[in-house]
Design goal:
Elements (H helix, E strand, L loop, with lengths): L3 E8 L2 H14 L5 E5 L6 H11 L14 E5 L12 E6 L7 H5 L10 E6 L13 E7 L15 E8 L11
Parallel strand pairs: 2-5, 2-6, 4-5
Antiparallel strand pairs: 1-7, 3-4, 6-7
Helix pairs in contact: 1-2
Main location: cytoplasm
Pfam families: TsaE
GO biological process, one term: tRNA threonylcarbamoyladenosine modification
Length: 173
């Protein structure tokens, strides 16, 4: 297992979430798995939408709340430094137990040609590989009851990345 560094950032608004997603999209590579954690409405899906856009996804980026996974082709030649052909966005909130990950065939989505964002990874604990990055979102203010489709209130995100990532380059300015 490689060494990691963890740090926190405050996301004062949705624009800051967009900037963070763009910056992380520039450093992610094919085959990597990113865990997204946080309560409902904490900003996981909002982050994913901007992350997908930064990788060149042009169509609608939907929440996989009921489908458990949404996949997107990454064919835009302007966004190929990551080397991935697909982005898979998992929302495991409704997964009953870890073995359902395997019975659904989701393990096959994780391959050297894809990038995976996994919301609610604890629902498949023991079945998932160790993530390359881990982002944990939380509300800073009392807006814990906001809709998952909106971004109201300030968020804080704890980010764990390999020590090889220059965290000084991750600025929201």
């Amino acid at each position: 297992m490689s060494e990691n560094v963890t740090f926190k950032l405050t996301l004062p608004n949705e624009a800051a979430t967009e900037r963070l997603a763009q910056q992380l999209a520039r450093i992610v590579r094919a085959g990597e798995v990113i865990f997204l954690q946080g309560e409902l409405g904490a900003g996981k899906t909002t982050f994913t939408r901007y992350f997908a856009r930064a990788l060149g996804v042009t169509g609608r980026v939907k929440s996989p709340t009921y489908t458990l996974v949404e996949s997107y082709d990454l064919t835009n030649p302007n966004h190929e430094p990551h080397g991935a052909r697909q982005l898979h966005h998992f929302d495991l909130y409704r997964l009953g137990e870890a073995r359902e990950w395997f019975s659904a065939g989701f393990d096959e989505y994780l391959n050297p040609h894809s990038i995976a964002l996994i919301e609610w990874p604890t629902q498949a604990q023991g079945a998932l590989p160790e993530p390359t990055m881990r982002l944990s979102f939380e509300h800073v203010d009392d807006a814990a009851d906001v809709s998952s489709e909106s971004f109201d209130g300030q968020r804080q995100v704890r980010i764990t990345v390999p020590v090889s990532v220059d965290v000084r380059a991750l600025s929201l300015e």
